[in-house]
Amino acid sequence: MVQKTLKRRTVNEVLFDKYTRHSIFLQQLEKGEALRIGRFLQGQVFPSLREKILGELSKVKDIKSVGVIRRVRRLTRMLVSIQKTTAAGMVRAEKAAISRLIDVSRFEAQWNVNTIERTVPLDIDMVMPSHAVLQELVTTKSFGGPGNQHKLDTWFKGLSKSVRSNVNKQLRVGIAAGESVPALGKRVQKAFDTGTRQAQAIARTATSAIVHNAREEVFKANKQIVPKVQWTATLDDRTTVICAGLDGKIFPTGSGPRPPIHFQCRSTIVPITPSWQEFGVTDPPPATRASMDGGVSEKVTYKQWLKGQPKEIQIKVLGKKRAELWDNGKGRVKIERFVSRDFKPLNLKQVARREKIPMSVIKARN
Q1: Which of 27, 35, 98, 302 is the most exposed place for a label (fewest CB within 10 A)?
Q2: Where does the Phage head morphogenesis domain start and stop, copy by copy (predicted)?
Q3: Which residues on neighbouring strands pair with residue 272, listed in sequence order?
């Protein structure tokens, strides 16, 4: 009878699995935060605004018959009157989000400390970041990706301004077209629906940012235990080129890009622990020696996953021209080359210039 020898899993492989499972829960958390803020805006903020706007419009028997100048003045006064109400509603939404995100920050830091301590087969004592530090991650740290970094309060102020601008635009178009008050109400609701989607995107991205910032604080406070991290992208056709290019990349703790690198980013980072020799252990037990070799999990990379997908999926992910240049991994251009050194997506001209491929050759492939 032939006995099968089971390969002992390394600490980093176990950590990779635990963090991958954890990321699924975190994505559900992000979705939950998005739904929560959406319900708050649609249930407690926007209805009163809509009622106030329609109430003002109903005071005019025939909006179209009012002179242009008077219409503009009336509309301007009305928009000014709802400005404070909109801002106040967004402040309430922001405060509620901050309270929940502080809890998320503390939870994530604690989960990381517990998980690493329980996985590494050595007597280690992880340092937990202070509550003050974890709270500051929510209130003072910017997020949003390269070239678009803002604090949470700035995002909400921008959202408030965007909602007012959209309401203004919808009302001006509707009034100019002589629409009825009910029709104008539908236009206002359309602006509010857009604002809700924007708020949900902010909530998802903010949650992801807080999770990864809290995780990074744990890693930085324990660099001797987590000296490196690995970028891991979600394997599906919604993954962006920038995340695909970073998938599998290893960075020193405290440096390099971190998720979310764009709005609604679903990538994550996992810790990489040293070998037992690097820990300074002189004579570990055989099990510890085998599991702590410093090796990294041999996950399916995004590039490997994409190679196995149909051509239409590859085109959806990369775009037609990029997919042709990549050519299922056999072409002259690697996925990583679609991302610049500061981790911003490149356009085709930039890629062609880096790879020394004339644009005439690219266009000739049509």
Answers
A1: 35
A2: 166-269
A3: 228
Pairing of strands 228-232, 250-252: antiparallel
Residues whose CB falls within 8 Å of the CB of residue 109, separated by 6 or more in sequence, listed in order: 128, 129, 134, 214, 215, 217, 218
Residues near 354 by beta carbon (within 8 Å), at least 6 away in sequence: 337, 346
SS (H, E, C) the chain: CCCCCCCCCCHHHHHHHHHHHHHHHHHHHHHHHHHHHHHHHHHHHHHHHHHHHHHHHHCCCCHHHCCHHHHHHHHHHHHHHHHHHHHHHHHHHHHHHHHHHHHHHHHHHHHHHHHHHHHCCCCCCCCCCCHHHHHHHHHCCCECCCCCCECHHHHHHHHHHHHHHHHHHHHHHHHHCCCCHHHHHHHHHHHHHHHHHHHHHHHHHHHHHHHHHHHHHHHHHCCCCCCEEEEECCCCCCCCHHHHHHCCCEEECCCCCCCCCCCCCCCEEEEECCCCCCCCCCCCCHHHHHHCCCCCCCCCCHHHHHHCCCHHHHHHHHCHHHHHHHCCCCCCCCHHHHECCCCCECCHHHHHHHHCCCHHHHHCCC
- pLDDT recorded at residue 73: 67
Please enumerate in sequence order all residues whose Cβ is within 8 A of that of 262, keeping only pairs 6 or more positions apart, or say none. Answer: 145, 240, 242, 243
For 51, residues 6+ apart whose C-beta sits below 8 A from its C-beta are: none
Which amino acid type is present at position 108? E
Q: Please give the single-letter amino acid code of residue 126.
A: M
Distance CA 149, CA 96 (A): 21
Cis peptide before 260 (omega within 30 of 0): yes
pTM score, two decimals?
A: 0.75
Total count of residues recorded for the chain? 366
Question: Both tokens of residue 35?
Answer: 């739904």
The answer to whether the CB of 253 falls within 8 A of the CB of 229 is yes
Q: What is the pLDDT of residue 4?
A: 43
What CA–CA distance (Å, rounded) separates 274 from 288? 12
Report the C-alpha gap between 357 and 130 in whole angstroms. Answer: 52
Main-chain phi, psi angles of 356, to 5 degrees: 60, 45
**Integer Cα distance of 218 and 112 in angstroms:** 7
